[in-house]
Amino acid sequence: MNGRTPDGCRAERRGWARFVRLTAVGLGSAAVLWGCRGASYRASGDPLLDLRNPNISERERSDAAVVAWGEVSGGVRDRERTRAALKDLAWSQQTPVRLRLTVLDLLTSDTTDEGAADSKRMVSLMVPSEPSRAVVSLLSDRIAEQGWTELTPALVRSAARDLEMNENGERPEVRALESLHPGEGLQEVVFDVFLDPTGGAAGEAAGSLRLADRARSAAWELLGALDPTGQGRAQMLRGVTAARISGPQEAETRRALGALDACYRELACLPNTAMELEWVMRLHGGADKETSAANAAWWAQASRAIGKLSAAQRDGLALRHAEPVRWASIHRPGWVAMSRGELLSTLDERLAGRRRHMRTAEMGPQRPAAKERVRDWDASLAWGDVLAILVIDEAIHQPAFAGRLWQQVGVDRDDKTTEYGGVIEAVESGSGDAFRLVLFRPRARDRTDDNRFVASDDLINYSDRALAVFHQHVQKARNARYAGPSDGDLDHAHRSVRSCLVFTSINSERLNADYYQPNGAVIDLGDIRSE
What is d(CA 429, CA 412) in angstroms, rounded to the nearest whole number? Predict the structure, then answer.
């Protein structure tokens, strides 16, 4: 977007990382960095007024902050009032980064009991969502220096963001975690947060249930990035003892562990993300008796079907594959008996001769045509992926399904405030091959644009036992240049870990169907004609 090359961006990140390290070291003592400049401070003569003034230079504001804090240390200025002024600057994203680093260093250097406790509270709230990597670096180092082990969950929540950066050994949260927990492996430290997301605190200090839930989810998200195969997590889950499950979140921990154990043993997979963990926990229970009973019946069927799969078929199996396996074991047992190669051949035969439509809306010199053939993604498709595509293809090409889909196209095209979407699910019927399209009309708050569909929490939760989530690109009859998922659509598939479909209007008689999945694979399933 900004014209820089990938190598240039990496070089810039390395340079920024070096600045962060040097700045964090230099700010270890505010007096060392700013003391000589504070001595020449002039401006208006009122440091609290000047440090808030955006119309003077950043250097003058920083000098004013140092002078104000020096007056606190000398007993001239009120500590609480000065801390409040510095904290206002520290929290504001409008404050220049270097000034924020200055005031944060001053605040966290406060050695009084009240000041240190206030700093710890501030840092615990700031680190998990702080966008500035320089600020995170400073605060992470300060957590390590102060030995604030209670802030381990906050560090984990921060490290779970921007997961692509975790391969970098300079990650400040990781540095701090290793310093706080010497001799322990990083995965074990993060797993301990999953088991007790309060960091061992109790009562008021434990924070709200909401924050604890976020820490648990972040811990699992980070573990999924550190151990994508799930082997390490499975081993840690097997090694959990009763003594390790304690604290204010004990009941929720036991519920999560029970769901994960059942998922690994009975569905042959482990969730990799926080969203997928929530999915497993909903399936292994339910919000009400009716949902719980339906989930239990579905789980039993899926477990029996998956239990008959070979080791090769289980390779790469994910939660989103459970429903296709369950359905196929009942209605297409021949597919379930096939190897991955045999399934690929069957899918190739089904798709041969179908009309395909490449998404060209974003094509250009730097953006080649999308790859949407099975052979383009052969190496990226697990056995479960290919079976899911076959079952979904079976569903969308049934006449009754197509009729309902075309009805929804008309409703969507008339509504200029949003795209429409929903869920594709299998339903038992006399013929045994029935599939249903469940439309979720976006709420008023989600109707932001006719070119955007927002999948609500209700839709995602409803899709727990479904085959796929879908949405439509049907703003006009001739919309072929948008045939296929956008970058935003692919990102949603990655985050939601669902199998997804997008239906695009080619003309008044044909819709194009594209399947896409969390790893970015896209398969064009051809056209669906109107009746």
Answer: 28
